Amino acid sequence: MDLKDLYRDVIVDHNRNPRNFGALHPADAQADGHNPLCGDRLTVYVKLDGDRIADAKFDGAGCAISVASASLLTEAIKGKSRTAVKELFNQVHALLTQQDAQADTARLGKLAALSGVREFPARVKCASLCWHTLNAALDNAPAAPVSTE
Ligand code: FES
Questions:
Q1: How high is the pLDDT of residue 144?
Q2: pLDDT at position 147, please?
Q3: pLDDT of residue 145
Q4: Is 86 helix (H, G, I), strand (E, B) or coil?
Q5: What distance in Å separates the CA atoms of residue 49 and residue 145, rounded to the nearest whole number?
Q6: Which atom of ligand 1 is nearest to the CA of 63?
Q7: How far is the C-alpha of 149 from the C-alpha of 141, rounded, in Å?
Q8: How is the chain split into domains, by residue range?
Q9: Burial category of 31 from C-beta neighbours within 10 Å (exposed 0-12, middle 13-18, buried 19 and up)
Q10: Residue ranges in the chain modelled with pLDDT below 50
Q11: Which residues lie closer than 8 Å to 145 by C-beta, 6 or more apart?
Q12: Are 87 and 26 in contact (CB under 8 A)?
């Protein structure tokens, strides 16, 4: 399956049946994301276990790409450290914005499908909305307590 087919299938699947949709209470961190171009809004919720993302959910209303991207994000970040999530963000951001960025399907899994958004530059903000929202949530979250043990 080439990336174009993967893009279409993954976006349709995750928009129709978004994973981890709903509020997470209590969340250790959350943030609201807003795309002023269209008015769409998403909230990303995160539960932390030390430095790791123990759980992640999202809710709100958005276009197919923003919902599918948020669904993929919540699946991809669970269990990862904050540092690993930042690296993932950088890879996804490059994939969305750099024409020559290679989709490392082995490392990115289904997230690689997001490279299909490059064909539609107006939709890059749709796909990145949840990622910027996640960053805002993690920036607000208290850092894990430093252990001296
Ligand atoms: Fe609003 Fe895509 S059209 S986020």
A1: 61
A2: 53
A3: 58
A4: helix
A5: 11
A6: 2
A7: 23
A8: 3-138
A9: buried
A10: none
A11: none
A12: no
Q: What pLDDT is stored for residue 143 in this prediction?
A: 66
Instruction: Please give the pLDDT value at position 104.
Output: 79
Residue nearest to atom 4 of ligand 1 (CA): 126
CATH class entry, domain 3-138: alpha beta
Q: Is the pTM of this model over 0.85?
A: yes
Q: What distance lies between CA 11 and its chain's CA centroid?
A: 13
Q: Enumerate the H helices of 32-123 as residue ranges.
A: 64-77, 82-97, 105-108
**What is the 71 CA–ligand 1 centroid distance (Å)?**
15
Q: Tell me if residue 74 falls in helix, strand or coil.
A: helix
Give dist(CA 94, CA 5) in Å, integer: 20
pLDDT at 149: 56
